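Listing S7. Sequence submitted for prediction.
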Amino acid sequence: MEAVRGQGLRIYAELRGEEAAEQMASTLNSESDSFSKPVSDLATCFAFGSVWSREGLERRERSLITMSALVALRQPEELRKHIQIGLRNGLSVLEIRETLVQLVPYVGFPAVASAIEVAMKALKEAGIDPNCLHKE
C-alpha cells in the first residue's frame, strides 16, 4: 500500500505541483486531520496511484475524460483543478473550449454554461487569456 501511496503522491505532484502534493502528504500524515484523511488516502492511492498511473491512455486523454465527467456531474471546484491539470498535460485553450462545446448536446446548456465560467476562472488563474484560442 505504501508503494501505491508513494506513486499516487508522485503523480499528484506532476499533475498539481509540488505544493499541492506536499499539502496532500501532510493530510495523509496528520494525526489531527482524521476527518478528511480517509478520502485523501483514497484519492491518492486509488485515483492517482492506481488509475492515473495506468497504461493505455495518455494524460491529455485522461484530462479530457475527467473534465467531461466533472462537467456532467456539475463539480465546479474539481473541474477548475482538472482544467489546470489538463493545461499541465498539454491541453490548449482551444481543446478545452471545444471539449465544452462537444458536451452541450450530451449534458446540456446549463451544465456547460457553468463550466465555461469555471474554465475562464481556471485559465485566468493559470495566467492564460481564455480568448487566446490558437493551438498551443
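Caption to Listing S7: primary sequence and predicted C-alpha cells for the chain studied. The chain has a mean pLDDT of 94. Helices lie at 2-16, 18-29, 37-51, 59-72, 76-88, 93-107, 109-125.
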